[in-house]
UniProtKB/TrEMBL annotation:
Residues 2-67 form the LexA repressor DNA-binding domain. GO terms for biological process: proteolysis. GO terms for molecular function: serine-type endopeptidase activity. Gene3D superfamilies: Winged helix-like DNA-binding domain superfamily/Winged helix DNA-binding domain. Transmembrane segments: none annotated. It holds the Pfam family LexA_DNA_bind. This is LexA repressor DNA-binding domain-containing protein.
Length: 95
């Protein structure tokens, strides 16, 4: 799951981004989003797209069809190195 998104919202964002990459930047319609995320409800698809817009992940251009612009793509933060684990220290001979 991407940070700041529910699993379902992340699924919608991944589909929209993949569709745009595969179709030369053209955004999917709500019907195509329904097919792509395997839902029958256009209302559910529209709601999730709206939530992505509300939270600032996408921007929809007014009065235009297929006008979804991805503003930010959340990712899991990466940390340098590997975890350090505590190793017990013993002085003297081992028994």
């Amino acid at each position: 799951m991407m940070l700041g998104l529910t699993a379902q919202q992340a699924k919608y964002l991944r589909f929209i981004r993949g569709y745009q990459l595969a179709h030369g930047g053209t955004s999917p319609s709500i019907s195509e989003i329904c097919k792509g995320v395997d839902t029958r409800s256009r209302g559910t698809a529209a709601y999730n797209v709206k939530q992505l817009e509300v939270f600032g992940f996408i921007r929809r251009l007014p009065n235009r069809n297929r006008a979804i612009e991805i503003v930010k793509i959340p990712s899991v933060p990466s940390f340098a190195g590997v975890p350090l684990y505590s190793v017990p220290y013993h002085e003297g001979p081992f028994a």
